[in-house]
Amino acid sequence: MSDVLILGGGIAGLSAAAHLARHMRVTVIEAEDALGYHSSGRSVSFSHYGIGNAAVRGLTAWSRSFYEAQPAGFCDTPLARPVPTIYLAREETLPALEALHAEMARFTDAVRWIGPAEIEALCPVVRTGAGQAVKAVLDPTGLKLDADALLQSFARQVRAAGSEILTGQRIAAIEATGEGWRVRSEGGESRTARILVNAAGAWGDRMAALAGVAPIGLQPKRRTIIVVDPPAGTDVSAWPFVHSAGGDFYMLPEAGQILVSPVDEVEDDPCDARPEDYDVALAAHQLEQYTTLPVPRIAHRWAGLRSFVADRVPTAGFDREAPGFFWLVGQGGYGLQTAPAMAAIVEALITGSAWPEGLDALGVGPAQVTPDRLRNGSAHSVAT
Q1: Backbone Cα Rg of the chain
Q2: According to the 3-state scheme, what is the secondary structure of the chain?
Q3: What contacts 267, CB < 8 A, 6 or more positions away?
Q4: CATH no. of 2-60+147-218+310-381
Q5: In the chain, domain spans
Q6: Closest Cα partner for 342 from 35, 135, 55?
Q7: CA nearest 7: which of 291, 206, 247, 162?
Q8: What does each C-alpha distance from 89 to 50, 107, 115, 293 come to in angstroms?
Q9: What is the CATH number of domain 84-141+219-308?
Q10: Same fold, 2-60+147-218+310-381 and 84-141+219-308
Q11: Are 306 and 39 in contact (CB under 8 A)?
Q12: pLDDT digit of tens for each residue in the chain (384 aa)?
């Protein structure tokens, strides 16, 4: 019998497991054969202050030190590399960019306004001028994260502590016992533990239903990415991560190619997400609208699910109606950049240790992440 069973081998489950394995025996159960197969493995893997609300930015800020100076022995390669980010505004989206600048400036004093000339110097293919980008906000502190290195390094920590990770184990049944929880896989394997951590991503509410626990309103939303080649002979390695203030486009240079998204949020069921033709075409269209780049072909395409609760803040905490049932869900598109903070929160809440130092000062306390907020009608008023 383990002390803790964690359902889900994505970044949320593995980072929490690594922290908890310092104190107790942990078993991670992942449905797929590979860790991080769904959301974590399909993210653009970036840390920046341009997405989320105040609570998400606070979690991101707290997590930055982990990525900027990773713990000794955690990984043999760098977890992050600096990549600046710019947020473009046309005349009609300037109010949105002004609001975004104010929010970002609460967490970093590095952000500043730039005009068309500097936009073009940073990324010469961005369309500027009449009807196009007239101003932008530059954040030079963006970090491109190595998602695979993160997942595998947290997994090594779990195993090195004597805990275990099981893959290819789809859950068929969950039941409360007198001593905790029992989980049975479709193959008939059974595991028990005092505490059950639901880190199942888009499947979080379904796992809760199997356990007889009321859902908290998770909504998976599909996000589409295409990969295109730059014009022959064009070096894109120094280009920034480019976003539109209108929230309908981004592009990121990666390994000599360009990742592009229409920043879609299409409601979907928990599934192995696949890109739809319309969203793929929209991504290509938006690239041609915001830049001078043609799209003669699409080299690759994929989609992933980003799951949100009502207030779009990652959720961690025990369910008040189900003793020993712990929620760790709703990471949205922020799971990688907030993982260090969320793992420290899980460690504090499960072991009864002190709240992570410095998080309160960043505007994140237990009230911001507790699942209770989603059950008492106050989700929309917390951490906005």
Answers
A1: 21
A2: CEEEEEECCCHHHHHHHHHHCCCCCEEEECCCCCCCCCCHHHCCCEECCCCCCHHHHHHHHHHHHHHHCCCCCCCCCCCEEECCEEEEECHHHHHHHHHHHHHHHCCCCCCEEECHHHHHHHCCCECECCCCECEEEEECCCEEECHHHHHHHHHHHHHHCCCEEECCCCEEEEEECCCCEEEEECCCCEEEEEEEEECCHHHHHHHHHHCCCCCCCCEEEEEEEEEECCCCCCCCCCCCEEEECCCCCEEEEECCEEEEECCCCEECCCCCCCCCHHHHHHHHHHHHHHECCCCCCCCEEEEEEEEECCCCCCEEEECCCCCCEEEEECCCCCHHHHHHHHHHHHHHHHHCCCCCCCCHHHCCCHHHHCHHHHCCCCHHHCCC
A3: 219, 220, 221, 222
A4: 3.50.50.60
A5: 2-60+147-218+310-381, 84-141+219-308
A6: 55
A7: 206
A8: 13, 21, 10, 19
A9: 3.30.9.10
A10: no
A11: yes
A12: 789 999 999 999 999 999 999 999 999 999 998 888 877 777 789 999 999 999 999 999 999 999 999 999 999 999 999 999 999 999 999 999 999 999 999 999 999 999 999 999 999 999 998 899 999 999 999 999 999 999 999 999 999 999 999 999 999 999 999 899 999 999 999 999 999 999 999 999 999 999 999 999 999 999 999 999 999 999 999 999 999 999 999 999 999 999 999 999 999 999 999 999 999 999 999 999 999 999 999 999 999 999 999 999 999 999 999 999 999 999 998 999 999 999 999 999 999 999 999 999 999 999 999 999 998 654 443 333
- 245 burial type by CB count under 10 A (0-12 exposed, 13-18 middle, 19+ buried): buried
* Contact (CB, 8 A) for 258 and 234: no
Provide the token pair at 155: 């997994």
Question: How far apart are the C-alpha atoms of 71 and 131, rounded to whole Å?
Answer: 47
